[in-house]
Specification:
It holds the Pfam family Lipoprotein_9. By secondary structure, this protein is of the alpha/beta class. Helices cover about 40% and strands about 20% of the residues. The strands form four sheets. A five-stranded mixed β-sheet has the order 2-1-3-13-4, sandwiched between helices. Strands 10-7-11-6-12 form a five-stranded mixed β-sheet.
Amino acid sequence: MNKRLGSILLLASVLALSACGSDSQAATPQSTESTQATSSEPIVVGSVGSDAEIWQFIADSEAAKKAGVTIEVKEITGGPITNTATVDGDVDANAFQSIGYLESFNAESPEKLVPIAATYVEPLGIYSEKFQSIDDITEGATVALADNPSNTTRGLRLLETAGLIKLKDDFDDGIGTPDDVIENPKNLQFTLIDDLTGPRILPDVDLVLISNTIALEGGLNVLTDSIFHEEADTALRATVNIIVVKEERAEEEELQVLGELYHDPEVQAFIEEKFDGTKVQVQIPIEEIWGN
């Protein structure tokens, strides 16, 4: 009887331990599944030059932590490559370009990108190591313009504003070229360059038109080093910089938060100090400047 009772108790203990082991194994995948459900993938933001520096600051900011988002910044050397990476899904969003630049890209791309938030405007400047002012520019001076439709037309508009040329009345601000110049009293000689090379070729030409992001990377401040520059306001819609995503992702909440993070006071204080006021905040609804 004692032997039979002992066997029964031993069997009951084994069954109980086995059941506990099964419960423990079942709990493990449930816990893992819950973690995966609550964890979010990082938002990958593609950017260029000084803008990438801004987004790295945003990624490390308290504002991003409070919003519960993780941002991974991918620095890419070149605007077209950055847009292509967004189209291909290698990055979730990008931040480096103006509305005019995006419109030029979309005109040539079968898959469209759209802005989800405005960020800033920064002046395009005319730089020279040979002339101290617009009035000093001599006959036949060489002028280097960025070789992409948006910045070529923007540069020509700035030259016109400076009183150096006159453009035809139906000048297209999306695809204009130096051929659209109808008055050129100083007989300026135009050459098109990769806009990233602007600061490097400054000693080799008389005038170079350089976007502020590229100028900053070359140690130039548009407000103090250029001989003439645009006004930093939103009057020129095409010059407003934006955060850009694929068209079908424009309403995703996790991407919409990028605009809010950019305009966080902590972030704006960093931008103001780091870039000496050359990136002027634009905090207006994107619908006011993008309607196509």
